Amino acid sequence: AAKESGQHGYCLFEPSLGAALNQYVATREALQTALEQDGLELHYQPQVDLRSGQVLGVEALLRCRQQGDELMVPGAFIGAAEESGLIVPMGRWVLREACRQTAAWQAAGLKDLTMAVNLSAVQFRHPELMTDVFDALAGNGLDPGCLELELTESLLLQNAALVQQTVRSWKARGIRLAIDDFGTGYSSLAYLKHFKVDKLKIDRSFIIDILQDEQARAIVQAMIQMARSLDLRTIAEGVEAVSLAEQLRIMGCDEAQGFLYARPLPAQALFAWMQQRAEDARLPAAGHRRRD
Ligand code: C2E
Ligand code: MG
Ligand code: MG
Ligand code: MG
Question: In this protein, which residues make up the domain named EAL (predicted)?
Answer without folding.
Answer: 24-278
